[in-house]
Amino acid sequence: MRACQVLLDAGFWHDGGINFWQRRYKRSETCVSGMLLAVFCWFGMDDPRVDRLAEHVVAQQMADGGWNCRAMPGYGRATHGSFHTTISALEGLLEYERFRKSRVAREAQARGREFLLAHRLFRSHRTGNIVKHEMTRFSFPPRWHYDVLRGLDYFWECGAGPRGHPDKRLEEAIALVKSRRKDDGRWVLQNRYPGKTFFELENPGEPSRWNTLRALRVLRWWDGVVA
Length: 227
Hints:
2 domains
């Protein structure tokens, strides 16, 4: 909790979001705001600024249901949601919904999930092509990056989709996860993103405990088995 207090005190910005780069940028960063919203709520941080942070994240949702940090003033004014920003916002709002029983957060997530579903979790809704092949490779920790397994893990965690009414737009993503299972029943670490690391959890190309855990619970959820 002390660490949460340090992060909130250092990053909370007057627009209600998180901005750790205040000398350089005069607006908050939506990806980071979503990530820290998840952290604060997971630890049960009862601070009015956490509620303002949730309001800020909801307010950044775009017309297509997604989020994009580049849609904010001074950052290019993007007109289409970003997979990366969207998954961070969804994860943060899920934790806030649990923390505050927030209907607004729940409704915003429903719109955000529809954004991902419209893209079948990794394809362009216009051409049907894979948006980025990195999205089909499973990494851990994902940092700010989106991939199919991270997206499905969110669907599992919030319980949206199957439960007797599977959304067929998830089927290709599920098939991708199944296809990556090795003969020994495990999944490997396919990708690793650069960033500060205090110790290595796993090595790319080798069996991954985290990817295996997430893949197994996603597939169990898809099959309608209560974990």
